[in-house]
Specification:
This protein is of the alpha/beta class. The protein is built from 16 helices and eleven strands. The longest helix is centred in the C-terminal third of the chain and has 19 residues. Bound molecules: 5'-deoxyadenosine (5AD) and iron/sulfur cluster. Iron/sulfur cluster binds next to loops.
Length: 362
């Protein structure tokens, strides 16, 4: 184990079998060695700097019906909301003033023309009010290449679209029959062709998922040559089909799948941005810091209005629903300095991988 990690830290390639072995570790001392190795690689490739993205959850309307997700179309217990233009711009102003450097606009999926235009206008307006300084990432699901292109031209430069699982069989079990794995992969390619920095990711600890599946997820990320990774443990949501069927929920087990997955992904992909997601924090109060210590380098604090947070419940016990953006900024700063890292203020914080693969030098 020590030799394997030593080799990985010093540039050695992990085989699929190595990845599986590391993902399956359950001895705490050995797991800790894995996290330390991933941390070394993070320091070398991206440094002890946390990149912040102000997350604006602009709407929980969704045309999709994913079996795991609390805002799925058929969850009629969910109160639906859409932020107004003024609310979105206010959140963006907060991000600019707080030095966050970039924002993420996230929502359930919609493909109607009204929404496409609304997003295009929001991207342009955010660019205007920040004099072009705020970077804009979109996370708005599957769209046509034309829509992706329009939003890119308007000024968005990064896009997150999780593959959820790179195993088509597992993907099919988590989604209704009209959701297509092939279409999702095609979307990722089309985003890339538009010129976006592309992020993807998966959920880990899913029912029926093995360490081999997760190793293949990491190989999928590598083969697609993605710039950013956002992934987190699956957490049951009581009003969803998967949440109702999932009886064996153990927060610590899910948390550790999430942390090991971050660590092995860092060892393999090295120079990408990896988010320490809210799902980790939902499982342990210090989950996000532990994600950073296992190799993640991005945090996406929620900066939308608190009044909508209780309606963006992808899973149960989602944290931060009662804390405003200023409070969460203060807590976050303490947490980050507490582990000896600093925040990269007022920077877009692009993935070094993107600039390596395109030869740029921001
Ligand atoms: N647990 C964890 N993550 C979830 N997501 C949706 N539902 C859940 C859940 N129950 C994640 C998916 C999706 C993102 C918006 O949130 O990965 O891509
Ligand atoms: Fe909609 Fe995304 Fe939730 Fe699926 S995971 S139901 S697409 S918000």
């Amino acid at each position: 184990m020590t030799d394997l990690l030593h080799a990985a830290v010093n540039g050695g390639e992990l085989t699929r079998a190595d990845m599986i072995r590391l993902l399956e570790l359950n001895d705490p001392a050995q797991e800790e060695l894995l996290f330390q190795a991933a941390y070394q690689v993070k320091l070398r490739y991206v440094g002890p700097v946390v990149r912040l993205r102000g997350l604006i959850e602009i709407s929980n309307l969704c045309v999709k019906n994913c079996f795991y997700c609390g805002i799925r179309r058929d969850n009629h217990r969910m109160h639906r909301f859409r932020m107004s233009e003024a609310e979105i711009l206010e959140a963006a102003r907060f991000a600019a003033t707080a030095g966050y450097g970039s924002v993420v606009l996230q929502s359930g999926e919609r493909a109607d023309a009204e929404n496409t235009e609304f997003i295009e206008r929001m991207v342009r307006r955010i660019k205007e009010i920040s004099n072009g300084r705020l970077g804009i990432t979109l996370s708005l699901g599957e769209q046509t290449p034309e829509t992706y292109q329009r939003w890119f031209v308007a000024g968005a430069h990064r896009y997150l679209l999780r593959i959820e699982s790179s195993n088509p069989g597992l993907y099919a079990k988590m989604h209704p029959a009209d959701h297509s794995f092939v279409r999702r992969v095609a979307c990722l390619k089309s985003l890339r062709d538009c010129g976006y920095q592309v992020g993807t990711g998966v959920m880990c600890g899913l029912p029926g998922q093995t360490a081999a599946d997760l190793a293949d997820d990491i190989r999928f990320f590598r083969d697609l040559d993605v710039d950013m990774i956002g992934m987190g443990p699956y957490i049951p949501q009581a009003d969803t089909p998967m949440g109702r069927a999932f009886k064996a929920f153990e927060p610590a087990v899910q948390l550790h799948w999430g942390l090991r997955m971050i660590a092995v992904t860092r060892l393999v992909l090295r120079d990408v941005n990896i988010a320490s997601t809210t799902a980790l924090q939902a499982l342990a109060p210090d989950g996000r810091e532990r994600g950073l210590l296992a190799g993640a380098n991005v945090i996406m604090p929620n900066i939308g209005d608190v009044s909508h947070r209780k309606d963006y419940l992808l899973y149960d016990n989602k944290p931060g629903t009662d804390e405003n953006a200023t409070e969460s900024r203060e807590r976050l700063e303490q947490a980050i300095t507490g582990i000896g890292e600093r925040i990269g203020y007022d920077e877009w914080g692009d993935s070094p991988h993107f600039h390596h693969r395109t030869g740029g030098s921001r």
